[in-house]
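Work Package 3 (structural annotation) set out to generate three-dimensional models for the target panel prioritized at the project kickoff. During this period the team completed the workflow that converts sequence records into discrete structure tokens, so that structures can be stored uniformly alongside our sequence database. As a representative example, we reproduce one entry of 221 residues exactly as it appears in the project archive.
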Amino acid sequence: MALALSNSVSDARGADLAACCNGARSIPLRFLVSLSISLFSPILAGSDTIATAVAGCLYLLLQHPDTLARLRQELEAEFRSDADITMARLAGLPYIRAVVDEALRIYPPISGELRRAVPTGVAVVCGHFIPGDTIISVYAFASCDNASNFAQPKRFTPERCLTTDERTEWTRNDHLEASQPFSVGPRNGIGMGLAYAETKLILARLLFRYDLELLDDKVQH
């Protein structure tokens, strides 16, 4: 059976993918566009982003031995063996979350644009009037590497992400909300919670099992 594309949304109103595949002779074009976006998003979000995040964490930690020692102290105080390390127990440890947040700020796995469409009419974004139906985006790296948002933005300082007294004084005016590796709003990364849990679990078990060192300690980030 040959399938034809249709520009009419109403043609498939109430129909799901199975219905279209099993009997529909006309599939709305907008339905296929929406489907392709839905299928592409998990591939983009979950293919190598966690591996990139872990690699960034390890690289920065190995460049900063004091920070690595502080993280090991937190892990060794909580766990007796790597078998004890679980996502649930890691959720209560603030420093490893701060390490991951800071690494994601410096090395956002998706450093490119995450687009949004301005609603019909007009919108005000950062004091600028943007016409409706305009596609806008903010590059994660540009936002996170901006000294207007973060003091000494190239400096790896997990303490800036803490809410306790351990947060360093010179970072207290940082705009932490400017770092959004999973985007924001109703269409942000649906797997954000799982991504944080997996990243912390992999990082914690690696550090618990192995002593790591940089192959070339002269490399700068």
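The CA atoms of residues 56 and 107 lie 6 Å apart.
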